[in-house]
Amino acid sequence: MLQAGSSSSGSSSPVFLQSSEATSSDSYRKHISVAFPSHGSANQLRLFADIPNCVKRDDVCPSKLLLEREQRLGGGDEETVSFIRGKRLLRELSTWGIGGPCNYFVEVFDEIQLISAIRFCATNSIEFLIIGKGSNCLFDDSGFDGCIILNRITTFENIEDGVYRVGGGYPINKLGVQCSNAGFGGLEFAGGVPGTVGGAAFMNAGADGQETADSIESVEIITTDGIKRVLQRKELAFGYRTSSFQEMKDLAAIVSVTFRLNRSATAKTKLQRHLERRRKSQPIYQRSAGSVFRNPEGLGVSAGELIEKTGLKGFVLGGAKISELHANFFINFNRSSSKNMIDLINLVGEKVDQQFGIRLRKEIRIVPYNAS
């Protein structure tokens, strides 16, 4: 999942544990710990407010100090997330393998940590993006001048036969395989999609006549103010690679999706057929971001076919290359820079427009260094 965050302040915020070096140029590599009380007891609030500026460069706030003060005050459970400053390279978080360092980086494993991270960014006016597998984004070589929040919410709950509530960070291909092997149809196409459940819902991912939206019952989201909302399927609109989520100005992240699937005697066979077709027609073992362009609607021709007809299949620009297996897959085959890839994307778009009068729309997202 990738979603740019707002920098407006939330209605409430956690207590921040950070050093006085937070904005100094010589503290480029460091951690910041944010403690967010789970239950908000008075003792817990005193516990976290009473801790001095204890985060030092390359350190996480000392857990021993937290423990000692909690024992004195009789506090309870808390959630703590650690922000890493300037160390994490975005090329490590993207299937394209392109991108420089982000200013802040944090992994979240549940919705309390996610809310804490969002409120930290909002209160400190830090732009943020939430990602899952990074399978549809192109990061800048300079990195990202904000915070990357990596969604690791991978909960999986089988509510009843064919009904699954799944975390936004859960791999969508894993879910597709699990459900199909269990004899439930609707997500067979997902078995070969290298993204997350949240990303699939956001983009309405699909293939071979199936779409994510077809099986959605409800979606839980977190807003940029750190508020949780549950949206029923009837409240959402979906189209070809589009969804209501893409138009929501206050959307921060998709926390979980509930799917309702139907029994299918052919689900497992259909899954295997999808996987085999992908192996033969797509460069699944090379660094790509899947389809770069959306297929033109109502024309009966795919983006890949149009690109192939321009004669650009296999074309190389710097370290970027159009796949010889599938013309709508662009490969980082030799340490491509983001500029290489952007130039290749623009070249292809111009060629298709010149030859066929068709303006292709990008399916991937280009993330600039400064998102504002």
TrEMBL record:
Pfam families recorded: FAD_binding_4 (PF01565), MurB_C (PF02873)
The EC number(s) this enzyme carries: 1.3.1.98
PROSITE patterns referenced in this protein's UniProt entry, alphabetically: FAD_PCMH (PS51387)
Keyword Transmembrane helix assigned: no
GO MF entries: FAD binding; UDP-N-acetylmuramate dehydrogenase activity
Protein name stated in the entry: UDP-N-acetylmuramate dehydrogenase
Known catalytic reactions: UDP-N-acetyl-alpha-D-muramate + NADP(+) = UDP-N-acetyl-3-O-(1-carboxyvinyl)-alpha-D-glucosamine + NADPH + H(+)
GO cellular component terms attached to this protein's record: cytosol
Predominant place of localization: cytoplasm
Record domain FAD-binding PCMH-type: where: 97-264
Cofactor(s) recorded in Swiss-Prot or TrEMBL: FAD
Keyword set includes Iron-sulfur: no
Reported function: Cell wall formation.
Annotated compartments: Cytoplasm
Keywords: Cell cycle, Cell division, Cell shape, Cell wall biogenesis/degradation, Cytoplasm, FAD, Flavoprotein, NADP, Oxidoreductase, Peptidoglycan synthesis
Lineage: Eukaryota, Viridiplantae, Streptophyta, Embryophyta, Tracheophyta
GO terms for biological process, alphabetical: cell division; cell wall organization; regulation of cell shape
Metabolic or biological pathway, per its Swiss-Prot or TrEMBL entry: Cell wall biogenesis; peptidoglycan biosynthesis
